[in-house]
Structures are given as C-alpha cells and as structure tokens.
Known about the structure:
mainly alpha, elongated, DNA-binding, binds iron/sulfur cluster, 4% strand, two-stranded antiparallel ribbon, Arc Repressor Mutant, subunit A
Amino acid sequence: MFSKACEYGIKAAIYIATQSYEGNRVTPKAIALEIDSPKAFTAKILQALVKHDIVFSVKGAYGGFEIPKEKIGRIKLSQIVNAIDGDTIYKGCGLGLNQCNENHPCPVHDKFKRVREELKYMLENTSLEELALNIKSGLSFLKV
Amino acid sequence: MFSKACEYGIKAAIYIATQSYEGNRVTPKAIALEIDSPKAFTAKILQALVKHDIVFSVKGAYGGFEIPKEKIGRIKLSQIVNAIDGDTIYKGCGLGLNQCNENHPCPVHDKFKRVREELKYMLENTSLEELALNIKSGLSFLKV
DNA sequence: ATCAATTAAGACAAAAATATCCTAATTGAT
DNA sequence: ATCAATTAGGATATTTTTGTCTTAATTGAT
Lengths: 144, 144
Ligand code: SF4
Ligand code: SF4
C-alpha cells in the first residue's frame, strides 16, 4: 500500500508527536529504536517531513525533532503520505494508464473508485493527534 | 497500489479473455502490443498466470495463450492479484508491523480496516468476464 | 572561543523490482 | 522427418527503492 519510507515516516511522526506532548525533542537514533527502522534511512525521511513543515528540527546540541503541540491536531495522515510518496496513492491506482480520466477509463476504474475514495477520505480525516493518543493510551503500538 | 507486474498481469488476462471469446489464441507479442507493456517481462508474468491455472498456454506453432470461455466468468480479480503479488495487498497493509493482529494493532489498524475490506470485497467480486465485456463494448480501455 | 551533540546533505552500497536476451523444448503443418 | 512458430526458463541488465557512511554546518553549554 505504502512504501517503506512512508511507513517509517508515519511511525516517526507519531512517535515525535507523543514526545512533543511531553515537551521532549527526539533524535533519529531514538526514533529508529522506537519504531524499529534503519536509523540513517529514517533520518532521510525526517528531512522530507521537515521540508514539508510537518515536523520541525532544531540543530546542534540539545537539538532534535519536534512538532509544536498545537499543530499535532491539524496534521493529517494525507500530508505525511503526500510528503513522502507524493500523490501516487491517489493517481497511480488501478491499472495506471498513461493518461486516465473518467472519459477514457481503464477496466477497473469504476471498481477502484470507491476504494480510492475511501482511502482518500480516511487519510484526509485521520489526524496525527488521534494516532499519537492511541499510542499513549496503549491502544496501539509502533513495533513488534 | 499494485506492482507493475500485477498491472500487466491484469491487463493481459483481460485481453486474453476478450480474444478467447472469439476463439483466438494470443502471443505475448500481441498482448504486449495491446496492453502497452514490455514483451519479455509480460511473458514472464504470463508464466505465473499459467502456473496458477488462470490462463492456459499451448506450445508450438499456432500456440499461444487462451482462457476457456466457460472459465472467464469464474475468474476473479483477486486470483490474478494473488498469483502475482501474493497476499501482500491484504496482509501488508498499513504500517506493516512484524506481527500484527487485532490485539496488537499498529496505529492505523482500525482506520485501514475499512479500506482493506472494501478492496478485498472488490477484488473478490469482480470477474474477468465483466472487465473483458466492458473492453469489448468500448466502455473501458487497456492503453493510452 | 571551544566543544560536544546534533541535523543536513551528498556520495555510496545493497537489495528488490523491472526489463531484456538467449537457448531449450514443444508442436502443428508440410 | 523437417521446419517454423511458439512457450518455458534461466541468465543477465537496468532502474528504483532501501539502506549506509562520511563530512559539513549549526548550536547550546561551558
Ligand atoms: S482509469 Fe481510473 S482506475 Fe484506471 S488508472 Fe486511471 S484513475 Fe486509476
Ligand atoms: S496492525 Fe492492522 S493495519 Fe497495522 S499492519 Fe497489522 S493488519 Fe495492517
């Protein structure tokens, strides 16, 4: 469904959010440990999230990654996916004709439409906040 | 959503079906041309479909690929996807924890559940027949 | 001012997916 | 029996994705 990079990106953002609620910045090392991902690769992905203003970085000693508390509720899963995988999840679905539209649909267009729209709706209406809170309350997990 | 291999596999199966209705066998060359895919790679994918008894091959001169007319209606999109991409589409969703289940869900589990089930339902309830008939009637297209 | 800790960035490496090429085996037509 | 057409299968090549490593830039604490 998503690329590995995107999976790591989502998990990283969730972990950073949980820590930001406590006022802690986190390093790529801590993140990689917490979400069970390759450290250097994760660091690359974090750069992308920073470029897209989804997470914020502070360089130098005592630096790290954080997300301002008040932003966490407004960040949607769709932004993270978009920052890393682009819009392929919306556009590259189905059988990926070169040009595709309602007037020249591939054979599965109508069938996929519902799934695609359901996915789109879900990504656009799931906030980082709810995902992070579920982690904090032990309802869901970032690894194992 | 799907791998390229899977996209080609689906399109190839649809094209073979349309031709099988007319009693024609088709070669990988013709298929690749019709679905706009790399010929040799498509041939590889066809082998997988043959192994899974989704399409049937006849070797030698005047040979080619075909699907018995009476089977076309019973072949579901899910079988094709499964033959090529395996069950990653069902199992490898979301954030892909190492082990994942209802009791130890990743943060997006509940969110993804609906999308995943919608996709599963669609794949299991879409037959090659309906896709092929839409091509024949000009309602959908295999390329451009 | 210096130092240690940290992110940023780019070069490099490995693995996986995609794609090509060549040869062998099969088979219908002649 | 031979030939031409065709699938099967394996070796190889290319591209993309995933992952690593090294160095530079930044910055808070001392
Ligand atoms: S025609 Fe529709 S389903 Fe097919 S690739 Fe285009 S947008 Fe996706
Ligand atoms: S916990 Fe659920 S959503 Fe997450 S990877 Fe497992 S099955 Fe998919």
